[in-house]
């Protein structure tokens, strides 16, 4: 990390990305992202910690059992509760929740758009009504940079509009241009402000353009030109066919700079992740492993398990010994089924830790295969396994 | 533990209780209970694992963080779900839920009586309707012994009637006599049957008699005469004034044999536990530390915290560093408040682990004070602390 002085008292270090291996038979890459809160080996999956907590998972479990290297926080949720005053008083989100490795925050845009009638988008930004107490708030590109500065994320996301699927071409095009104008405002404001705490922060711009190849190309070129330390692909995994997701991802990855990490937002199933690693994506996040966990859906190295099925009632084998980790090797399928059927919290806890352990195991395996030059064939076998319903 | 042969293939070891110290200024005792699943240092608090799970707490946390030495299971819940077939196929509850230290099961009576119109008590036993699927079931003293044999508890409780408070004298007296007749049937059946698994089980009878001193005396004498390896006091902590609870407990403890452990069922607050240790009780269980935890009520070494209070909003000190343990020293009050206010599962998890850690810390402190001969004065100071509202 280079270090430069900005102003009289604050100094900022840059985030660094080192590309280590490229798979010979696909576009898969292995690299290392270095932040002031430590290194991230890519490809990586980032557990989602919406309100400063990865739901149902202790911080110790995220670190020691799941072996996550970076987690997400949601700006919208954290801004409303506990609020910036509390987070700043704590010394930032890392200090507040006790997670001392890297954190990435989304811009809050995605949550705000989901509010439907309770939000209004203009060129200036978005006015929305809190889902908690009905109070009115304004998110602008500048404000969202300030908020993420205070939250103290290592990686800050640009304020964009995530278009729905399907999306009329005219809307997608206008929205993309607004996202680009907002990006300029984000960059200007970010570059003119300093970190609130004593570590560096970096800003990732986001490619939009819905499922229109020419818009995606135009957006990717615009984003690439900004020369930031990492780049993201947004607006996918919102209901479009997988073929479209893969086509847009490949098109965009081919344009985004090779020497910067690429983050595909909100993706996805184990299969999606493997396919998109093959297309050159380095970073992923998704609520699926934790959300589906709470309904008893398990992702394992042998396939998908609905633990509520009668077939697991007397299966006293461990959940998934292959991937290691406390919950996956200690608890049996029969016991876990009992907990989920009985709506016991421990069931959701075990499934959440297990699914995240599996996701991190999966990207670590992918990394090892990329380093060994065997990723492409392994990926095809693994996709068959992870899509099997047991 | 003595070992004798019963029948051709099964052998049973006896549970042992060794009384080590008696406090000079109170009736408090320190001892060691030895079972085939390990030793229990008394006085002890037993976390309640209703359906084979201490709610919201991983088995690893119960063992390593909370340092519990024995947990409870509820016969009623386990019998209905997962059911005896699954538990027996697993090899008993220890194997099913992965807890390899001692387990005590209640008799299911308390839960069954709580069903109100959905149960009918006769001399034979209780017929009740499942709260899960409405199916009809019969619990008799004999059946309940068989069920607890299959669950595989180290300590099995007699099938009794727990009278409500207030309770007419006539009802209390008749009920006590029926509980005594049921006890004889429990003992006959228990002594004629063998453990299902390869470790010993022991049966504790239960003193009843509501808040009538003469009935309590009569019941305690009857229970003492049975000469079992441990004895329990039931029918308290059901709404009666604390003075009555203490008076009945003292009266009964004075009659129950000194060389056998005494278990006060369903008690209680930290204050109740300290006062009843002073009266000669060795074992306790209560849902309070976990149930209240889920609403954000914390028991600490300095007093009671309602974590929802505004005053904790920016309190970045640990929950209770005094008692040690991961959650109590790692998470801050402000973060925990945020989790509970946001209804995040992790909030209930942290509060549950913390409260149980505190309860186990409290009885361990009591034990140390008894061994040092300083229990009585320490207890009076501690009662003041634990009843303070912070």
Keywords:
alpha/beta, TIM Barrel, 20 strands, five-stranded parallel sheet, homodimer, 2 domains, disordered N terminus, 390 residues
Structural features, described:
The structure is a homodimer of 390-residue chains. The first copy, chain A, has 2 domains: 271 residues, Queuine tRNA-ribosyltransferase-like (TIM Barrel), CATH 3.20.20; 94 residues, no CATH class. Chain A is built from 15 helices and 20 strands. In chain A, strands 6-18-17-16-15 form a 5-stranded parallel β-sheet. In chain A, strands 7-8-9-13-14 form a 5-stranded parallel β-sheet. In chain A, helix 10 runs parallel beside helix 14, helix 10 runs antiparallel to helix 15 and helix 14 runs antiparallel to helix 15. At the A-B interface, helix 3, helix 4, helix 12, helix 13 and helix 14 of A face helix 3, helix 4, helix 12, helix 13 and helix 14 of B.
